[in-house]
Amino acid sequence: MITQRLFMTLPFCLLAVACSTDGGQPGEEPDGPQLLSFGANTATLTEQRQSKLVLSAVLTDPEGVDDIVGGTLIDPVSSATYGTFATGAQEGAYSLELTWDAFNSVQPIDTTEAQPTTKRTVEARFFDQAGHKASRSIDVTLACAESSNGEFSVNGNCAKLLTPSGCGGDYGCSVDIGHDGILTGTQACNTARTGAVCRECVWTSPESCDTPLDAGARCFCDIPR
After folding, report:
1. Which of 5, 160, 162, 171 is the most buried (most CB within 10 A)?
2. Euclidean distance between the first and final Cα of the chain, in Å?
3. pLDDT (0 to 100) of residue 163
């Protein structure tokens, strides 16, 4: 029995970054489903399209795997649901694939330049026909792909605070604003070059130098001679 149990678990543990193989863990009821393994393909998720978190689980049940009705992944703080696990080809196997947007829809992903990553705990819950539950939690780190280059997330949108360009001469420069409501044009120009004065800001329409700017705005700055 032990040999069979380890054989069922092994393929998932080899693929998972985080994995547990002990049955009868906290979060499991004696007559309910038992998690033989639960893990993720990566510990960090980014906003890039190809970045996906794949959670894999293998379960058994005293009444047989057909007694298991399924599982969901939740946010243990708000009880919001990330998604429902799909059954795999192997008996008792389940998986769920999540993207950056899925995490942002449950709770906005907000980081800063100083703290460019944030950690989320997610909890998988599986049930059998009698309502018995087995649950297991795992931590996932969320970070912009270019966080090492100054990008951070505001409501799931990754960008740098600002990007100055053409500031080497005496005739001024332009500054691209990365995030909504972070800086005014005056603050952006002064950050790009000390003493620079905001002349005008444009986006889809002219904006004031003294109001918080929308993402994508470009401000033109005059540099003192």
Report:
1. 162
2. 82
3. 73
Residue 184 CA to residue 162 CA, distance in Å, equals 11
Q: Which of 33, 18, 27 is nearest to 63 (CA)?
A: 33
CB atoms within 10 A of CB 89: 5
Q: Which amino acid is at 4?
A: Q
Tens of pLDDT, residue by residue over 32-42, are: 899 999 999 99
Asked whether 59 and 126 are in contact (CB, 8 A), the reply is: yes
pLDDT of residue 25: 63
Contact 73, 99 (CB under 8 A): no
Task: Determine contact, residues 35/58, Cβ cutoff 8 Å.
Answer: yes
Q: What is the pLDDT of residue 26?
A: 63
Cα–Cα distances (Å) from 146 to 54, 153, 160, 168, 181, in that order, read 22, 10, 9, 25, 21
- 224 CB-near residues (< 8 Å, 6+ apart): 195, 196, 197
User: What gap in Å lies between CA 48 and CA 75, rounded to an integer?
Assistant: 22
> Which residues of the chain are under the pLDDT cut of 50?
1-23
Question: Considering only CA atoms, which of 123, 124, 98, 107 is closest in space to residue 44?
Answer: 98
- Structure pTM? 0.70
Q: Which residues are CB-contacts of 109 (< 8 A; sequence separation ≥ 6)?
A: 100, 103, 118, 142, 153, 155, 156
